[in-house]
Sequence to fold (223 residues):
Amino acid sequence: MRSSLLCGLLILAVSPAIHASPYDDLISTDAPIARWSFENGEQGTAFETVPRGKPTFDEAGPRPSEYPDFAPQNKAARFARGANYLAVPDPGEDSPLDFGLGDSLTLEAWVRIDGNLSGGYPYIVGKGRTHQAGTRPTNQNYALRLAPSSGGTAISFFFADADCATKKSNDFGDDGHRWTSTSFVPDDGGWHHVAVTYTFGQKDSLKGYIDGEPVPGKWDMGG
Fold:
C-alpha cells in the first residue's frame, strides 16, 4: 500500500472466547496455530504482537445481521497505506510458524478494502521479508497478499525456496513462487473472506477461496 491515496485494509481474526460466537466455535474446531482478534486492541494467540506504524483497533468488523455468525460487537483493525502493520518477533528455529517441504499451510482472513489499492502487493499476513538489519530482502517464507490490477483485486500466495534467505542476490529469480487468482474480491465496500491452502512441494495442491468458493488462478512466477 505505497501510493498516496487514502485507503485502508481491514483484517479480522475471530473475536475472543469471552464473546463466543458461532464463528469462534467454527474456528476453534480447527485448532489454528495462530489467530488474531481485535476486540480489545491487538491480540495474538501464543505469539507476541508488536504494532508498527499506526494501525488502529476500534473499527467495526463483520456483524449481524449481514454477517450472522459474528458477535454484535465484533471489531477489526485498520491498516492504512504505508508501514502500518503488526509484527510477530521470530520465535526461533523450528517454531510452529516455520513451514517447509511437505508441510501443509492454510492462511485466511476477513478483509474489507477501502479505496483504491492500485500498485504493489498489500500483505494480509506474511513470514519474513521484513527488511530488518542482517536479513536478506529475499528472506520470505510465505505470504497471503492482495494483487490489485486494472480488472480488480485478486488474492495471491507467495513463497520462496529455503536457500533464498541467505542467497547473495536480492532477486528471487526462479526461487520465488507466486500464485494469483483470476477471480477478484468483490469491490462493494463489504467484508469478504479470503483463504489459500497449500502443501509445499506439491504445485497442484494450491487452492484459493473467496467467500468460501474455490477460485481459479495460475502460477505467474516460479511455480
